[in-house]
Amino acid sequence: MTTGRVLADPGLAEAAADGADLAVTTSGLAMRFRGGQLAVDHIGLAVPHGSVYGFLGPNGSGKTTTIRMLLGLVHPTAGTFAMLGTDLRDLDSVLPRVGALVEGPAFYPFLSGRQNLARCDAADPSADLSTARARIDHALDQVGLLAAADKRYRVYSLGMKQRLGIAAGLLRPRDLMILDEPTNGLDPQGTREVRSLVKQIAADGTTVFVSSHLLAEVEQVCSHVGVMSTGRLVFQGTLTELRSRGEPRILIRTSDPPTGAEVLGKLELASVTVSDGQVSAALGEHAPERINAELVHAGVPVAGLETVRPSLEDLFVELTGEGFDVNG
Amino acid sequence: MSTASVTEVPQIAPGPGAAPVRHWLRFFRSELRNVFLRPRNLAMLAVLAGAPVFLGVVLWINTPAPGSGGPGAGVFVGQIAENGVFLSLFAIYVLLTVLLPLAVSVVSGDSVAGEAGLGTLRTLLTVPAGRARLLATKYATIVVFCFAATLIVAGLGLLMGAIFFPVGPVTLLSGDTVPLADGLARLALIVCYVAAALSALGAIGIALSTFTQHAIAVMATMLVVVIVSEILDAVSQVAAIHPYLPSHFWFSFDALLRTPIAWSGVLHGLASFAAYAVIFGAVAWARMRRANITC
Fold this sequence. Notes:
heterodimer, A: alpha/beta, Rossmann fold, Alpha-Beta Plaits, 2 domains, 6-stranded mixed β-sheet, 12 helices, about 30% helix, B: mainly alpha, 2 strands, about 65% helix, about 0% strand
C-alpha cells in the first residue's frame, strides 16, 4: 500500500486510517485538460471493500474522468491512487481483477453479443482459455442475454446494450466492478434490471463502484456515496451519514400563514418561509408540540403540522447546486 | 433476468502470463477475423480479385502483339501473349498504383481510429488488452492484410494467365529464359517485396490512425500521401527527394526479373520500407503510450 492515506472526509475517517480495507483510494487526484479546465480537482476517494459505492454528481462534474483515470485510460495531472492495494504504476497487473463499463457500452455493431464478448475475452492476456465458452455463456446468462446472444449488437435495445456492457465485466470473477452510468438512458424497467444486477454482483462479495447523475437510481443499492460537484468531492460517507446532514424543518398548514410566521419568529426559529397556505421553519432544538401550543394560543388555525427531513434528493441538490444540468 | 445461481461459476484462470503466446495468438486471430470478415474489407478484396480477372478477359479479347508495349506496365503487356505468368505481374503493376495502396490505407487507417470511433478502444484497453500489445497485434494484422491483398492479385493474375494464355518457361526482362518453376519463385519474391512495400505504407496508416477517432480522415490523408508521393516521384525537378518518397521503390521489383538479380535495387527498396515502418511504428507507439483515451 503506497497511497493508503486518504483525505479526512466525513464518515470514512476510520476506514481510511487502514488503507488495506479500501478497494479504491485516491489522494489529491486531479486532471486538468489541455484547455486549462480542471475536470477533477484533487479528490480523495475512499471506497471500502465490499461496499456498493454510489459515485454521484451532475453531468460534467468529473465522474467519468475520474473513472477513466482509475482504469488507466487518461493520465492524472496530479495525485495518485491505488486499486485493490495496488499502486497506479502497476495498473496492468490489477486491471484483470477489475470489471469495467465506461461511459456507456462500446461494442462492434456488426458482431453478435456473443462474438463481442468473445472478442473482449480474446483481448484478455490472462483469461482462462479452456473455459472461455462457458464463461461467456455464464456472463450472458447473468445479465439475461442468453436468448439474444446471437443477434447483432446493432439491433440491441439500449437496455440490452448496457447489460452486455456489464456482462463484459463479468467474464471472469472480479474483486471490483466499476460501472459508469449503467442506468443512463434506460427506462424504469431497464433501470430496475440494472439495479438488481448490481445487487447480485455485490452479493457475490464484489465491491461495486457505480456512478450516476441521478441519486434516486442508485440510493436503493448503495451503502456508501461520494458526491462530486464541478470536479470536487463535496461529500463522502455512508448513506446514513448523508441523510443525517439534513436539518429537520417544521411545516404548518394554516389559513393564516403571516400570523403563523410571526409566532415562529417570536419563538426564534430560523429561516422562516411563508408560502401559499403554509409556513415552515428550521426546527432546531424546539419541540413541535410546544410550537403547536403557541400557535393555537396565538389563534392561528392549525390544519396540519409535521416535521420533515429533507429527502436525499434535496440534500444532493443542495450539495451539487441548482445548476440547470442537475438532472441531466 | 437471470436465473443463474452463484454456484454455476465456471472454474477460473491461472494467473496472468500463463501462456502469453497462446493468449496473443487468440487475440491475433480475433483481430484477423474482425478485419477479414468485415463486409467492407471483403468487398475491397473482391474488387482486388476482380481486377486481374477483368484484365485477363480484356487482354484475351484484344491480345497485344508479342513484343509490343511501352515503358512501365507496358514491359509486361508485350509478353502476355507468349506467357500467361506476365498477366500476374501486369496486374500487380497496375493495381500497385492506386487500388492496393487504397485498400491498405482503409485497413490501416481504420485500425486504431476505427476502434476509437466505435468506443471499443476503451473497452479493449480496460480488459486490459495492453496498449503495446494492442498496437503490435493491429500492425501484425495489417501486415497479414498486405500479404493477402498482394497474393490475391498475383494469384488470380496467374490463374487468369493460365486460363487465357500459354504458360511455360519465362523470358526475363534481361532476355534470358528460365524454367517456369524459377519464374514462379521470382513471382513469389515479387509478392513478398510488394507486400513489404504496402506494410510500410500500413505503418504510416496506423501512426496517423492513433491521432484521431475519425478513420475516414486517416484514409483520405493516406490517399493524399500516396498520390502526392507518386506525382513528386514523376517530377524530375525534385529528383533529390525521390529516394525518400514512400512510393519511390514500390515498382523496383523488376530487378527481380533480371539475371543476375539486381539485388542492390531490391535491398534499397527493402531498406526504405523498413525505415518507414520503424519511424512510423515509433510515432504510433509514442502517441499510443501517452494518449488520453477520452472517446
